[in-house]
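User: Predict the structure for this protein chain, please.
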Amino acid sequence: MGANFTALFDYSINSQDLIDIPTKLNDKEQFRYFYSVVDSLDDTKITRWEWPKDIISNRTVEEEFLEEGFVSMGGPGGFVFYVGKHLCELSSYIRWGTFLESMEIQNHFRKISLEFSRIFGNPLYAPDLFCLDSYLFDEESIDEAKKWLIKEYGPPSNSINEMIIDSRKINEFRKYFIEDFKE
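Assistant: Here is the predicted structure, written as structure tokens:
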């Protein structure tokens, strides 16, 4: 079974702030590390974060956000960023197992998440098979997602290394990790 990397961020937004998100994500000074490695992670040649053309040709991003409760945009490196009213999610086609096992990929993603955390708060890392995006789509909070995770999978791992050991032992992904970047 395949699973991809996701990072969930606790971030409440209103429709006015939404307009500024691509500008913030395209700031190569604030996201210096992200822009230094994205070409090595993917060859899509996407260089900027932008709202999808099909959304903005039919209605404004704000209208989409208010009606659907979320919007998403593709960006450099094959990343996708979902913005909901109470959560944001950064996802990648990079496999969860690769994130756990490759120190190079893990270091890249943690440094990228650190840059995102400066705007969106500390990330919760989990495989996409946990379907945490449903909390984003349903306009729920990170606390509700954490309660469900504890019920289904127990408390968060104390480290990413603990997740690696667990996944090797049982040959499946049952753990998640909440990063706590200290300023």
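The chain has a mean pLDDT of 87.
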